[in-house]
Design goal:
Helix content: 10-25%
Radius of gyration: 19 Å
Shape: globular
Strand content: 35-45%
Number of helices: 2
Order of helices and strands: EEHEEEEEH
Low-confidence stretches: 121-135
Distance between the termini: 45 Å
Structural class: mainly beta
Length: 140
């Protein structure tokens, strides 16, 4: 059983025959596979990236997800490379993949920068729909 962070990468793919765009979501098991995938694709087609974190890497102690806004490839003076992630709040995290960060950074390259997601729709219309779906009184 894998108890390491993994990623869900959703990309728009255009069907050239029909002209219709589809969303394809890939499950990526390692951060270096993520970096390799980002090197080989048009990052403008990426809709979203989510990092799934195991319990040992979260304060809650169970699996959790974090929306990723930026992916950086960092090379240290010791020639080690690692992936750093920034979440929607701008907080850097690595998912516990690299514990020793004492080596000086020689270079950082931005591999992906996603725009902020629009806020989910809330308000009376949504509340009414949810209440009605539960069999309650609409608008309550």
């Amino acid at each position: 059983m894998l108890h390491a962070p993994w990623f869900l990468l959703t990309v728009d793919v255009l069907d050239e025959d029909s002209g219709i765009s589809f969303a394809h979501t890939w499950c990526i098991a390692w951060e270096h596979d993520l970096a390799d995938a980002l090197h080989t694709m048009d990052t403008a087609r990426i809709r979203s990236l989510v990092c799934m974190l195991p319990g040992w890497a979260t304060s809650a102690g169970h699996w959790a997800s974090r929306e990723v806004r930026e992916v950086w490839l960092t090379r240290t003076e010791a020639a080690e490379e690692y992936v750093s992630l920034l979440d929607a709040a701008g907080q850097e995290f690595g998912g516990g993949l690299r514990s020793d960060r004492s080596t000086k950074v020689a270079e950082r390259r931005l591999l992906l920068q996603l725009p902020a997601s629009p806020l989910p729709k809330t308000g009376p219309g949504r509340r009414r729909t949810l209440t009605s779906a539960r069999g309650g009184k609409a608008g309550a």
